[in-house]
Amino acid sequence: MATLLSFSRPLYQSQKSRDSINDRVLHHSLNLQVKNVLHILSHAQIERRMELVRVVSHNTHKRMVSCLQGHIGTDAEKRHKKLPLTSLSQAMVEGGNQLGEDSLIGKMMEVCGEAENRLASELMHHELQIEKDVLDPLSQLAEVDVPNILKQRKQLAKLVLDYDSARARWLQATKSIISGTNTQALTAKADLLKEEMDEAMNKVELCKDQLAADMYSFSSKEGEYALYFVTLLEAQADYHRKSLTVLENVLPTIQAQQDSWTEKPAFGTGLDEHLKRSGREIALPIEACVMMLLETGMKEEGLFRIAAGASKLKKLKAALDCSTSQLEEFYSDPHAVAGALKSYLRELPEPLMTHLLYDEWIQASSVSDPDKRLQALWVVCNKLPKNNKTNLRYLVRFLSKLAHDSEANKMTPSNIAIVLGPNLLWAKTEGSLAEMAAATSVHVVAIVEPIIQHADWFFPEEVDFNVSGMFAMPAPTSNHNNHADYDCGTIERKRPQSMVGTDSDVARKDK
Length: 511
Description:
The chain folds into two domains: 18-260, Arfaptin homology (AH) domain/BAR domain (Substrate Binding Domain Of Dnak, Chain:A, Domain 2, Up-down Bundle); 271-458, Rho GTPase activation protein (Phosphatidylinositol 3-kinase, Chain A, Orthogonal Bundle). With 511 residues, the protein is an all-alpha fold. The protein starts with a helix and ends with a helix. The protein is built from 18 helices and no strands.
């Protein structure tokens, strides 16, 4: 009996030990499963965001690199040489040197080329800063930091599989103790497998803790990662400010060269600006056309009334815009010359007789008494700005000379005023030139006709038509007595008959 009891005691103890082991295994397994579920629930959202951050960071980095004009990863000097702006700068400077200082285009290209080089330098420094402060950190985040955390997640999954395998072997060993005969050896083996399972479990816990720490660290640094894009905008703002400074510093120099350049088209340019640029007293188109007409157009019938050929007129205007004195080919076409003069007057930004005095001109022309009307027109005429008055005097004295030959050319003061007057004065109103001319033509004729008719009285000073000396003076003509009111050969010019001995004549002299 004693032997039986002594034999059954180890079996009982062994059964009790197996029950205890099974309980511990079941409890440990349940704890592990609960922890894994909680781990998955707490980290799933962060893990999904990490993967999304990796994708969008990678795509943004790729697009940002494509926006760079320099080659990423190269040093400053090589990057600067490869920039398109640098190539543009070199081409402009070389082109400017080829054209030379005598060309405004050459001057502009040289100055602009230097400016483009400075802009290229600013762009190079900007891209280097973007590469250092934005692209490199963004690449580190997308290609290293997040992938390493995601790799660690895969490592944890592998360690969990290793643990499950170790636990399965250990459970199998504990079952073998029950059915086996060598209990002691089986128990020792189970203990070894238990140690392996515990070691695998420790690795799982360590990896899980590290993964959790990295994930929480990533989540807490999202604000720091977002600063990359703030840095991008700040760098871009700084680059554009510096580039704007470069442009603002060079623009006054370019504008000064442009303003100092005298070779600018006369047609469409303000009278004062043209005279200042060219250093002239009389606008070139006015003097050139008058000199050509004095030579070949004084007897031409219908001058200023008959339209010229469009191509010839265009060519003459282009020649005058170039400030050339080589105009011999146009002497034979006085209608083209007259058309060019009309075009110049019509294309002035402000009429020769000015917008400012328009109402006063109209009011003066409306005076009913002829003598007082002339006096009123004379008063307004003397209010003209100096350059306008000088050029009007030059032109009117020529038109008066043209009217002397009206028997041949059919251009009386009235006819001249009709065809040329709307080009000398128009209202500052909206609408086409035709509409403006139609609205003011009657008044303008009443203004211009008496001024031409009494040119010597309005402008008694002698006029040198070749004021610049650029043109040859025409041979004097003998037939200058068509109108009794004109006597160009005397120093004392006759006054208009209605003005002789009147108080207005005295008043004019006192002014």
